[in-house]
Automatic annotation (TrEMBL):
Organism superkingdom: Bacteria
Keywords: Membrane, Transmembrane, Transmembrane helix
InterPro entries reported in the protein's UniProt record: CCB3/YggT
Protein name: YggT family protein
Family under the similarity heading: Belongs to the YggT family.
Record bears the keyword Mitochondrion: no
Transmembrane as UniProt keyword: yes
Transmembrane segments: 12-30, 71-96
Cellular component, GO, one term: membrane
């Protein structure tokens, strides 16, 4: 059972970095730092969008309109941090006892 928790923590860590990469990519895309017509850049952006958007969309629907500021990645990162800490500090020690 401990192996399952470690796998879940690893998956949460990977998803954490994908959310950060998606946020950074969206900034680079918005400020025209990356070329949107490049096929490789487009495929990376499409991958990051498809991976993160299903988790970010419900959060965006709950948040009020803040203009051009999107804080949904920050909220999702906080949720992931809470889940990770819950697994490591509550569930894992209970399994070891």
């Amino acid at each position: 059972m401990l192996a399952l928790i470690q796998t879940l923590v690893m998956a949460l860590d990977i998803y954490w970095w994908l959310i950060i990469a998606s946020a950074v990519f969206s900034w680079l895309y918005a400020f025209n730092v990356v070329n949107p017509r490049n096929q490789f850049v487009g495929s990376i952006g499409n991958f990051l969008f498809r991976v993160t958007e299903p988790a970010l969309r419900p959060i965006r629907n709950l948040l009020p309109d803040l203009g051009g500021i999107d804080i949904s990645p920050i909220i999702l990162l906080l949720i992931l941090f809470f889940l990770r800490q819950f697994l490591l500090t509550t569930i894992a020690p209970a399994l070891l006892s």
